[in-house]
Design goal:
heterodimer, A: alpha/beta, five-stranded parallel beta sheet, 15 helices, B: seven-stranded mixed beta sheet, 14% strand, globular
């Protein structure tokens, strides 16, 4: 009767007060800040003569605008530079810790949170960025907010919200070898649709999710927003606790013992009820490739570009036609006959060390195919980059013909100089294949790091499991 | 925030589902550190034939004549009629800022992305959810009648067509109150400072590791 879902538990722990209509004041434990969605919020604080409620609950990092090439000369684009300098000044004025551009700990905000132990199980975490859902992989309630809400959290340490509904996505059984967290998540989005999670918080469960590493779970939760969900969650288990232990901002000593014991309760009770339950059979999931301009426009590597003529819903049909026109693809083209020009390995979805290892394992001893014009690897943080270099992964990438870059959001959205040209086709490990996302007119195919690497050496999409590596 | 009570406004139809916030306001314009001035770049990549960058004089740029908002009959539109999942993707509040700056005060759709709808309400833009059937009806009516206007009344939670047909919509009481009165949410929350402090003190005892940094 009183059995609760993980979301129920996290929600209940953070409610300060509620109105009769269910609008609640929710306490926020951690606020992550980047340079794009915060300047107007800090300006609002200044205009109203307000100070941050709890400076120590905030952590800031520049990631969207930073160059991924040599940084010794600073940022060339004056607008990008101003935005990063504005963050530096705001953090200094308001006493907020910032990992500035040349700090080894700098990186994509959703990579550095877990990496530093700034993200902890049981927390509420917000950031002016929709991929904040990433942090739910650690059993924290984490979601993206707008700039007005950034200001609200800075000023009050709270957010005004109504509770969402509970959805369980259970990925049952074992995924085949070579099928990654990215493939699982793209398959989930393909099944429930890009608005399938709207109004819900999704908890990911089932044996295939339990079997994922913490980094894999982050990849899954990261793209919850691509399914429309407010947040994604994975229950705490021993992997979660082991992942957090010893990280710079994680508790230690007696506090660690208390925290770890408490975190073990952060899982849904056996009799908890969900408003919606979706099952996927892990064994049936193949490596995925998107063919259109929405993440739900996805199919398996052995599939074909669908034919809009077979779609009966006229709005959907027109959407598919527009997507194919934009992507420069004909209906019924086999996915394996699509040839990218560019490879991008990076983003808050897939720029962690395991992602780089997976790509390097495929690339080792191979070179870029002749039709690949450029290939970038953008590590998710300075520490990921450092670790990769210790392992010699940078040498594998460079030997294959990849550019080895500095950490940042880079070509996931191209706010810095890393952009696609019109009609340039990219195999990308990022999260959005929207029109113009990676550069005006650019064509994005979302894939896993291993699948991006496989496309890099063969020159077309190919089932990575069929390559001899 | 600008209050929203009622509006009789020209309707522009945007006949496409899953319109994302990257399309509403492309990334290059997010480099601004201001809240205003985004209107000329609303839907920039669809609206103009050239590539837009921040600081360009948009009055000199070539317009895409096929883009709906460039058509003479929709000039001055204040209500955008849209399809499912409008505003999906990035949480950028620059999207509603651009819509407001352009002149939109209402968006009608069968569904909205969560963060976008929330961001609208904080900027005096009313997101109205009607059924797919009702929205399809409105698309047909707009198409058939140049100068088509709708009456949107937040107090009554109603949309009224020129033919006198009335569609009701739901909205949270709190959002409605804030929009009707143009309330500043931070000031509202500040009325509960004592509650927040009590909560925080208890939390420091229950989960002290969250306050040790």
């Amino acid at each position: 009767m009183n059995d609760k879902t993980l979301y129920d538990k996290l929600w209940d722990r953070h409610v300060v007060r509620c109105d009769a209509d269910g609008t609640c004041l929710l306490y926020i434990d951690r606020h992550l800040v980047h340079e794009v969605t915060s300047p107007q919020a800090f300006e609002g604080l200044r205009l109203a003569n307000r100070r941050p409620w709890r400076s120590d609950a905030n952590l800031a990092v520049p990631d969207h605008n930073v160059p991924t090439t040599d940084r010794s000369a600073g940022i060339a684009d004056p607008l990008s530079r101003l935005q990063v300098e504005t963050l530096d000044a705001n953090c200094s004025d308001f006493g907020i810790t910032e990992f500035a551009m040349n700090d080894i700990r700098q990186g994509i905000v959703h990579i550095i949170g877990p990496e530093q132990g700034v993200t902890l199980p049981g927390m509420t975490i917000v950031c002016g960025d929709s991929h904040t859902s990433t942090h739910g992989a650690l059993g924290s309630l984490a979601f993206g907010i707008g700039t007005s809400e950034v200001e609200h959290v800075l000023a009050t340490q709270c957010i005004i919200q109504k509770k969402a509904r509970n959805m369980l996505v259970s990925v049952d059984g074992q995924a085949g070898s070579g099928v990654t967290a990215k493939d699982i998540m793209l398959a989930i989005i393909g099944k429930i649709g890009t608005a399938g999670g709207t109004g819900y918080v999704i908890e990911y469960g089932g044996d295939a999710i339990r079997a994922l590493s913490m980094e894999g779970r982050m990849t899954v939760c990261n793209m919850s927003i691509e399914a429309g969900a407010r947040a994604g969650l994975v229950a705490v288990d021993d992997k979660t606790i082991a992942y957090v232990k010893g990280r710079p901002y994680a508790p230690s000593g007696e506090l660690w013992m208390q925290a770890a014991a408490d975190w073990q309760t952060l899982r849904s009770d056996a009799g908890a009820r969900y408003d919606r339950v979706v099952h996927l059979d892990a064994a049936s999931i193949q490596p995925q490739v998107t063919w259109g301009t929405s993440p739900e426009m996805v199919t398996s590597i052995d599939g074909r570009v669908p034919d809009p003529a077979l779609e009966t819903d006229p709005v959907k049909r027109e959407g598919m036609q527009a997507a194919l026109a934009y992507m420069g693809l004909a209906a019924n083209t086999p996915i394996a006959e699509i040839h990218p020009d560019t490879i991008f390995i990076g983003s808050c979805t897939n720029a962690r060390i395991e992602d780089l290892r997976a790509a390097a394992a495929v690339l080792k001893g191979h070179k870029l195919a002749a039709n690949i014009k450029r290939a970038l690897v953008v590590p998710g943080s300075g520490l990921v980059k450092q670790q990769a270099e210790v392992e010699g992964l940078d040498q594998v990438f460079k030997a294959a013909g990849f550019e080895w870059r500095e950490p940042g959001c880079s070509m996931c959205l191209g706010m810095n100089d890393d952009r696609l040209a019109p009609k340039e086709r990219c195999a990308s490990t990022s999260n959005r294949n929207f029109e113009g996302r990676q550069g005006q007119g650019g064509r994005t195919h979302l894939v896993s790091p291993a699948m991006a690497a496989a496309a890099a050496i063969t020159g077309h999409f190919v089932d990575v499991r069929t390559l001899e590596v | 925030m600008q209050a929203f009570r009622k509006l009789n406004g020209l309707v522009a139809p945007f006949d496409r589902s899953n319109v994302d916030t990257d399309a509403i306001i492309p990334k290059q314009f997010l480099k601004s550190i201001k809240r205003t001035g985004f209107g000329p770049n609303l839907f920039d990549e669809w609206r103009y034939l050239d590539h837009g960058e921040i600081g360009m004089d948009c009055s000199q740029r070539p317009l895409n004549p096929d883009f709906v908002l460039n058509q003479p009959r929709y000039q001055g539109a204040q209500i955008l009629l849209a399809r499912d999942n409008f505003g999906c993707g990035s949480s950028r509040e620059h999207a509603p800022w651009a819509m407001l700056d352009f002149g939109f005060r209402v968006v009608i759709a069968p569904s909205f992305a969560d963060i976008f709808a929330n961001n609208c309400c904080k900027n005096g833009i009313l997101p109205v959810v009607l059924s797919s059937t009702e929205v399809a009806r409105l698309f047909a009516e707009v198409d058939a009648a140049p100068g088509y206007c709708l009456d949107v009344d937040l107090e009554k939670q109603q949309v009224k067509t020129p033919g006198g047909e009335v569609f009701s919509f739901a909205i949270d009481d709190f959002r409605k109150k804030c929009l009707l009165q143009g309330l500043d949410e931070i000031s509202l929350t500040m009325q509960h400072v004592a509650d927040i402090k009590t909560f925080e003190a208890r939390r420091m005892l229950d989960e002290p590791w969250l306050f040790s940094g």
